[in-house]
Design goal:
about 500 residues, alpha+beta, Outer membrane efflux proteins (OEP), four-stranded antiparallel sheet, about 10% strand, disordered N terminus, disordered C terminus
């Protein structure tokens, strides 16, 4: 169809000036949040700890090996590599959506050399034609161009959805990195806690061996009864039986640490096998508010961007109600060897086309697509709201665990000191013949139990601190949502660890 001189400028004007697109514009969902976390006051009242900022919280544990393993995990973890490759795929989809708004062009060219036999029916007819040449060459070159004019904004909504998915992938990379950093610190603390419990059990076993040797000596002298020897041997076996189970847990934790570091199990075992204290839980320099947490946590940014994409896809579906206009053009030339130069030949061709595509009798399917898109948007909205609630729940639980576990450690420390003195007194009384062996064994059992429980409480306190940093989205300073949201991942990654070359090369 030839293009009308008046129609073409009109369509071009519409495509350039159309600032709106069909479908709903995105509005951030309203989320009702309290001004402060319920456990915020208790966390802020903690005294005597170094205060950790959220950007590099792992350094506040004052454990160089913990900090080193976190950095190695961020550099080497394979889950992060997967997230980075998903980001690259999302970037490609965004480029395709951007390209859909631009004109496209293609060049077609061909050259042919032909030979016509006179034995064929066509050759027999042509052979009687004066000047018939059985051999010949033909050349053709064409330049084509096409452009879909996005009058009603369907393509722009598609680009909006692709851009939101790209930002979601960016936030996904950072969310994965923060999760890996927290998991690495958590497993490291568990290793130190298990080592402390094994040390306590081994010390108790050594104490009971010494007691057993004393009782055996007394039995040989006829001072102690065989029953006392059996009791001491049984008590020793109870303590020794705990050690293999703790060692199995320790080996599993060491293997988990190696996997987080992207290495074969056993790679870092020698390094981490050197017993070290359980890292003390630092304080929090700032906890922020629930509203700040929403802007900081990359998993919540990811959930919101998926909501943005779902909202844009409603507009893509609605645009199918309206006609699609396109412009096409073709310019080419064809010639044979005998007719002269390809580009000076009279066998040229030119064409201009105004295209129209309209699903005029397909509105039922369009309505179904719109309904599906609205359903996906409602699902994404529910997912975002659930994510916000769960994030708040994680913060509150982590704060509560941190404060309560720390109080438990203080109580257990006082109890351990009292039971240690009680054990010394009971042993002295037994050696003096004042009390029976049962009193000494009970004192040993009580001391072992409270020392082991204290080590577990110290471990859980440090893990609660890690959970608090993770729940708050610690590891980066998020920009305000109104600023350059498409640059989100660059800011997040730089603040998390600027030397992660693999992700930066994808960016």
């Amino acid at each position: 169809m030839p293009t009308c001189p008046r129609t073409l400028p009109f369509l071009l004007t519409i495509s350039v000036l159309a600032g709106c697109a069909v479908g709903p514009d995105y509005n951030p969902p309203e989320t009702v949040l309290s001004a402060r976390f319920l456990g915020q006051e208790g966390v802020e009242e903690r005294e005597g700890q170094d205060k950790a900022n959220l950007q590099a919280w792992w350094t506040a544990f004052d454990d160089p090996m913990l900090a080193r393993f976190v950095v190695l995990a961020v550099e080497q973890n394979l889950d992060i590599v997967q997230a980075a490759t998903r980001l690259a795929q999302s970037r490609a989809s965004l480029r395709q959506a951007d390209a859909a708004l631009l004109p496209s062009a293609n060049v077609n060219a061909q050259a042919a050399k032909v030979y016509q036999s006179v034995e064929t029916p066509l050759g027999q007819v042509l052979s009687v034609t004066p000047g018939f040449d059985r051999s010949g060459s033909a050349f053709e070159a064409n330049l084509g161009a096409s452009w879909e004019i996005d009058v009603f904004g369907g393509l722009r909504r598609g680009r909006e959805a692709a851009r939101a998915e790209y930002v979601a992938s960016e936030a996904g990379v950072v969310a994965t990195r923060l999760a890996v950093a927290a998991q690495t610190a958590d497993v490291y603390v568990m290793i130190r806690g298990l080592q402390a419990r094994i040390t306590i059990a081994e010390q108790q076993a050594e104490t009971r061996r010494e007691l057993l040797d004393t009782i055996k000596f007394q039995y040989e002298k006829g001072v102690a009864a065989e029953l006392q020897v059996n009791q001491a041997e049984g008590a020793l076996a109870q303590v020794e039986a705990q050690i293999p189970a703790l060692e199995a847990g320790l080996e599993s934790a060491m293997n988990a640490l190696d996997v987080l570091l992207g290495a074969q199990p056993g790679t870092y075992r020698t390094e981490v096998s050197q017993v070290a204290p359980i890292p003390a839980a630092p304080g929090l320099a700032q906890t922020g508010t629930p509203a700040e947490m929403i802007r900081r946590r990359p998993d919540l940014i990811l959930a919101e961007q998926r909501l943005v994409a779902a909202n844009a896809r409603i507009g893509m579906a609605i645009s199918e109600y309206y006609p699609k206009f396109s412009l096409g053009a073709l310019l080419g030339s064809a010639t044979t060897l005998s007719s002269g130069n390809l580009f000076s030949s009279d066998a040229s061709q030119a064409q201009g086309v105004l295209g129209l595509r309209w699903r005029l009798f397909d509105f039922d399917r369009v309505e179904a697509q719109i309904a599906a898109a609205r359903g996906q948007e409602a699902e994404a909205l529910a997912a975002y709201r659930i994510a916000v609630l769960r994030a708040t729940d994680e913060v509150e639980n982590a704060f509560s665990a941190l404060v309560k576990r720390e109080a438990q450690v203080d109580i257990l420390a006082r109890g351990e000191s009292s039971l240690a003195r009680a054990r010394e007194n009971s042993l002295a009384a037994y050696e003096s013949g004042v009390v029976s062996l049962i009193e000494v064994l009970n004192a040993d059992a009580n001391l072992l139990q409270i020392s082991d429980t204290k080590a577990q409480a110290q471990t859980e306190t440090a893990r609660a601190a890690i959970a608090s940093f993770r729940a708050l989205g610690g590891g980066w300073d998020a920009p305000h949502p109104s600023t350059a949201r498409t640059n989100l991942v660059n800011d997040l990654i730089r603040s998390m660890h600027s030397e992660y070359s693999k992700t930066e090369s994808l960016d």
